[in-house]
Amino acid sequence: MQESRKPRLFYGHIIAAACFGIQAIGVGIYIAYGVFFIPLMSEFGWSRTAISGASSVAFIIMGIFGIFVGRLNDAFGPRKLMTVTAVFLGIGYLLMSRLTSLWQLYLFYGIIFGIGLSSVDVIALTTIARWFTRKRGTMTGIVKVGTGAGQFTLPLVASMLILSYGWRNAYIIIGAAAMLTLVGIAQLLKRDPSQVPQHPPVKETGLQPDKKPSGESLSLEQAIHSVQFWTVCIINLTVVFCLMSIMVHIVPHARDIGVSAPKAAAVLSTIGGISMLGRFVIGMAIDRIGSKKIMIICFCLLITDLLWLQTADALWMLIVFACIYGIAHGGFFTAISPLVAEFFGIVSHGALLGVAICFGALGGGAGPIMAGYVFDVTGSYRLFFWLICFMSLAGLGMMFLLRPVEDRD
Predict the structure, then answer these.
(1) Which of 15, 78, 96, 369 supports an S-S bond with 123, CB 3.0-4.6 Å?
(2) Which CATH class, in words, describes the domain spanning 9-208?
(3) pLDDT tens digit string along 373-401?
């Protein structure tokens, strides 16, 4: 009598769920920082520029430390690294409950929390890239939906906690919960399928030999000596410069043209909701047409949308902008990790993605500050919107010129 066999759960699905959680919690509590603006202003009398500066510092620190996290992840795997950085992330939030001066804001949130944030993209996206090849785009898209879910839910949770318990206790509750949850999730992480014996057959898992155009993965040294890698880094800097500027300033812009505060917030919520759909759909499209074509499509959407923004002077026009922008926004952040894998392979994916994310962080930190400066000088965002439109055109041109790295002996 033949014993019936139940198909075993593919561990890659556990990896995907874990990475979804990392993205949701890490990015969600970073975005939730905006909910604390008014309480901090009321308590200490600090300016919006001073408070938002700490967020920019955290974003840049995330990118810089992401390089080291990426290299260490390639060498030692994600479990220990995620555990350590989760502790930094949680401690940063816990220390914020003891805040008394501005320099502490930049130390606790900008530096300590920023170090904790450094693993959220690099570890989650590199681990997914190692576990999936044929379904890499789809699974990356699913994981990046976690970003949108965190952006949508955690600011609401933070707002309710502040109303119920005060902003200091809210920092304690969120920091402790995030640290414990991320440390728990970290214990589930495995570097690649070789660490889990007897996984299902290739056709069930989507695991295949890497499809990098040059036929093999490049070493870190080979990749960093290629024009293509630095082109990808500059493209990512350009993209995140534009995207983060919009995310930070679209609500003030809506208020400037006469949209009420709740409706202006609805524009930002629309971006978050549509971007979740965009991440999932574009993730599947990456598996069919490749990351480069997806990036080109996203640039075309962004440029068209920025031109529309120049004439948008009513709520319905901003909602249209938010819908198109949300697809492009989600698409760019979903495509960058598969793009690095597609052009350079996965042997040094963590280190290479870490450098690319660092360039993006530099752009993401500089863009919102420059947008605010242009507004302060000119009294309008119009000039800055033209600037990011031309930057997007330059990024599109670089994508068209990007070619596979030639094989090296």
Answers:
(1) 78
(2) mainly alpha
(3) 888 888 888 999 999 999 999 999 999 99
